[in-house]
Write a structure and sequence with these properties.
phosphoprotein; mainly alpha; about 375 residues; transcription termination; about 0% strand; DNA-binding; Transcription termination factor 3, mitochondrial
Amino acid sequence: MAVVPGFRAFLSLGRSVILQQTFGLNAVHLIACPPRRLCTLTTKSDETKPPVNTENESLLENLNLMGVDVKMARLRQPGVLRKAFTNEQGLAKFLQSKGASRKVIAGIISRYPRAITRTISHLEQRWQLWKNIFTSDKEIVSILDRSPESFFRSSDNGNLEKNIAFLTTLGLNSKDLHRLLATAPRTFSNSLELNMQMVECLEDICAELGGKDPEQFAKAVISRNLYIFIRSTKRIKTNIDILRALLNLNDSELLRLLQGHGAELLDLSNEYLKNNIINLQQKMVSLGCQTPDMKKLIISYPMVLYIGQATLSSKLDCLLKGGITMKQVLQTPRVLDYSTQNITGRLEELQKVGYDFEKNGIGILDSSRKRFVAKMEKLAALSDN
DNA sequence: GGGACCGGGGTCTGCCATGGTT
DNA sequence: AACCATGGCAGACCCCGGTCCC
């Protein structure tokens, strides 16, 4: 759709200095080996052995000294431990300079050993690109600690830069980009092509549903669902098909649903979504509801389809047991937003003060803790007087 | 003052499979 | 054959508070 070719033209302008630099230089070429221990070399005796299946002893020693869980690293990426040239010390120094603790660094290498094959210049470039979106090193360190793979999996900084440019052209502002990278950092390690495919997929869905502004639709879905880019287009398309087939919604209703909270439903695995729809249908029928009730529920509260079968059942049962009717749930479906535990606790408290749901409605269950506590205090004071 | 309505924010990695390259 | 880069998957909500209207 329109965005994609437009973006290609935009890229061809070659606006960035970094983009014009050479990427993908091999660690072997770039690492200044002396001073000693900045990198690890195989010893002569290692070289005489067949290279296959031989771990780099001096590398293992280094990693152990750094507190890396070598067993875990071996399990994850055994090949890295056999490499003759690595950059664990350079990586450690680099991360340390950004404020990462020894423990964090060890954790990163243990979980994503390939990180030690990245060169300093690669790391610096990548860091700078992330810094375009995050303001502080601390924030980046915390994400690396959370998900080392997202940062280190790709060696293609040019692709990362193109991704940032592409996502910007979608009309996502810096706050959106920040949330996107903070929440689903893998998005930025996807190939540009893959991300473009997702946008095209969303735009096509909009067009198929008779939407007039596919670009706006894609943007709405992305900012509603920050995980969208780490899903496959196959999953998204199949989920759309499932929603179309199983919900009695017309195209414009479905379009509206997807631009609202329904966007998050696209994340669910196909089977899970399908099962949840079927289960909700059965549950509602068993509780005496009609098809229009279900449609109304899904439109007003799409996240009902996010709730797993067991959780939904226990939530509804607990509400009904507490004297609440299905009609009231349909009127205030957001009570289902709260955990079963929370609902149970509140129902108990309300029962103690003889709260009349018929008279007052059930809105009190859909309120923040602070507001609920304040309300309960008032009710207690009233009953004291 | 209080309830209804509604938008937003937190959170999501670690593993496996695969195809291309060396 | 080994290794690398990348795609894809499973897993499965809960809560807060601003604002408007009565």
